[in-house]
Amino acid sequence: MSKKIAVLLLLAASTGCRKEKTLAAANLNVQNKVAVRAVALFYESQEMLLVAERREVALPENPAAAVPAVMRELMKGSVNPSVPRLFPTDTVVRAAYLLPDGTAFVDLGGPTLSGGWSTGTHQEMMAIHSAVQTAVTNFPEVKRVQILINGTPPETVGGHLSAARPFTPMPALVGK
Hints:
alpha+beta; 4 helices; two-stranded antiparallel ribbon
């Protein structure tokens, strides 16, 4: 009998904890003014240009808090299975920051990027500019994007383009 009572008490306690966590998350969402908002994520089209894919994403109202969420959504890849991934599949967004001068820092990690991603010039350029275009399109405050790998500006992201300075949008890479 004592084992049954212990199990019931444990179940009752865990249910109460789940309710408290759910309420805490709901309260945090209210405080941060989290709402589902439309975002444009940029992926490469068959024409070898970046095109927007629209999604609805739960985002905080504050752009500084929303940038990391949008970058994580971008790294998930396109919902269209025929659209190739631009960043390696194991890429993670470690953090993203927005400075008052309009510079967004996107800190990426993952085994491939950490070990030295060896890719072609075109894919590297499209990957970087997918992040840049996504950031500047969704956040008018963002003027440029500095890519970091594990918290440090890399020499390059994929072996070709200097990542020593922030990247600015390149409208010529964006299709209709």
